[in-house]
Amino acid sequence: MDWGRAKSVLIYSFLLLNLLLCYQLWGDLRDQAGASLDFTSLSAAAQQVMEEKEIRVLSVIPAATPELPNLSYRYSAEPDAPPVALEKPVDSRLIFTFSELTEALKGEIPDIGDYRFDSLESEAGRFVLHPLVQGKWPLFSVRLELIYNDQKIVAYRKPQIQLDPAGGQDEEKQKILPAAKALGSLIEKYLPAGSAVKESSLGYYGELFNSEAQVAAPMWRFMLEDGRTYYVNGISADIISPKTAE
């Protein structure tokens, strides 16, 4: 055996491995550049309230502030309508690999690839997905529910929804309120002592009315560890908590 040559191959292999690891680290840092756990992005008043009321923020605070329009769409659904049974149950573990889930269910739900799985709104017996606006922003107020039993997806409940084909592009765009400012306002005015913010994400939200024509606004969604959800309007900064009197 040519040990000198073998040694050279090992050295080059280790160099290549180090380069790959460095590239992966760079990619991870790049992905994290848009979000930060640095609470100094919050106002001094919000930080003081956090300390006084022992409020914790467990999720990253997104730094992106895109320009988004309001969204017009058509929606209709019967709240008490029974779910549609699948002809062939699907292994529910596929929910953790969305591409596989899409492939398994696209025969019965052709547009399932236009939805995003929401682990925080999902609960025992049902997985929740939201339609995506412009392929990126979830419409939080509309839900596609996948019903499962004995680790098998056995049925689904799908809303009748028609999004603006332009994704609201014809509407006037406005720069979105920074997440740090929206969260700071929420901390100062509404969050009870001991709260823990589990998730911060941007999407669309609008109350659903008995009318097919609906309007949703860009909203920051903040979900607490105890299950409560708050929405902060990305334009007006109004705060909504759907399941409470606030």
From TrEMBL:
Bilayer-crossing regions: 9-26
Q: Name one GO cellular component term.
A: membrane
Q: Does the keyword 4Fe-4S apply?
A: no
Q: Which UniProt keywords apply?
A: Membrane, Transmembrane, Transmembrane helix
Keyword Membrane among record annotations: yes
Q: Which organism is it from?
A: Paenibacillus spiritus
One Pfam family named in its UniProt record: YycI
Q: What is this protein called?
A: Regulatory protein YycH-like domain-containing protein
Tree of life domain: Bacteria
Please list the residue ranges annotated as the Regulatory protein YycH-like domain.
Answer: 104-234
